[in-house]
Amino acid sequence: MDTITLTIDGTSVTTTPGTTVLNACREAGIHVPTLCNDPRLKPYGSCRLCIVQIEGMRGFPASCATIATDGMVITTDSDVIRDLRRTVVELIVSDHPLDCMTCERAGACELQNAAYELDVSESPFGSGHERKPVDDDHPLIERDPGKCILCGRCVRICDEVQGLHVWDWQGRGFDAIATTAFGDPLAATDCESCGQCVSTCPVGALTARQARGRGRTWELQRTDTTCGYCGVGCTVTLETKGNQVVGASAPLEKGVNRGNLCVKGRFGYDFLGHPDRLTTPLIRRDGELQPASWDEALDLVAEKLQATVAEHGADAVGGLASARCTNEENYLFQRLFRAGFGTNNVDHCARL
Predict the structure, then answer these.
(1) pLDDT score, position 352
(2) In the predicted model, is pLDDT for residue 128 greater than 80?
(3) Pick the CATH number of 4-77 from 3.10.20.740, 3.30.200.20, 3.40.47.10, 3.90.228.20
(4) Per-residue pLDDT averaged across 295-300, rounded?
């Protein structure tokens, strides 16, 4: 069977076999709230916010962990479903600080969005549980365990995508927490500082330290571009405010990286606005480096290389290629030195 047909909220929807009910809803443009779901991760079904009603099926299954089958009849929104979802959010809020005005994730917080959608302003279950201390030792990642909602996304992305297993579970009930082995500071673990846990955290439990206080989410302009650190060509979204880059992320389901970034792509953007960054070629004239055009700079390099080869032979020159270039650009580079200058003195910075 190439396709299956199901009915969602009275609408006939066609999808492929093996698709989850949640993804079938999204393909049809039907909104179902979630907290623990990330398209980069395996279905988990822990938050129970994406519950739906399926004819002939008992209870209210989590749509993210239920495979759609041909002929299913699904209801995603009803008074009963909304009441259940509201109770889920109220339970989470009962153990979550409501300091949204100063939280870095305000405006982009999935819990805040769910609370707004379900009209939850406070929890009838009370609060007042002891606030867990902030882990402030890591240079790039700030961790506030008190804001953790136990969705497991940080644990799972570190395991399923990065394969590092830095995060895991500890404790039960209100004492449960996603933490490191033996509760060590994040900087003392095998963490690669990739920030994948930051990218998937739906609340303000894990945030980028260098972006703190530099702009609210609604103030930022976002521009998709290509990461310049290596030749892989990852898609990265630069977040800017006032002509300054204040953050970086990656759009899900887009580009070769599909929302994933390494430490350089996610946190290594400070050089863009650094006062020492060169923005034009420099040529030494009368003992001093002075600005020049690209044509002047390239003509000077070609002239010096040709003069050196003519005077000392081809083996007197060499080329060091860059991992920031594509394979095609590096091919042309080595071709220039081997065929153009007649030397095999070619190396690559990725080897060093």
Answers:
(1) 56
(2) no
(3) 3.10.20.740
(4) 96
3-class SS shares of the chain: helix, strand, coil, % to 5: 30, 20, 50
Q: What mean pLDDT do residues 284-305 have?
A: 95
User: Is-contact 100 204, C-beta < 8 A?
Assistant: no
Residue labelled with tokens 């008074």 = 79
Residue 112 neighbours by CB under 8 Å, 6+ apart: 100, 105, 106, 203
Decide if pLDDT at 129 tops 80: no
Take residue 107 and report the two structure tokens written for it: 């405006």
Rounded to 5°, angle at Cα 107 from 126 and 162: 90
Domain ranges across the chain: 4-77, 213-277, 282-351
- Is the pLDDT confidence value at 126 over 80? no
Q: What's the rounded mean pLDDT across residues 169-187?
A: 90
Superfamily of segment(s) 213-277:
ADC-like domains (2.20.25.90)
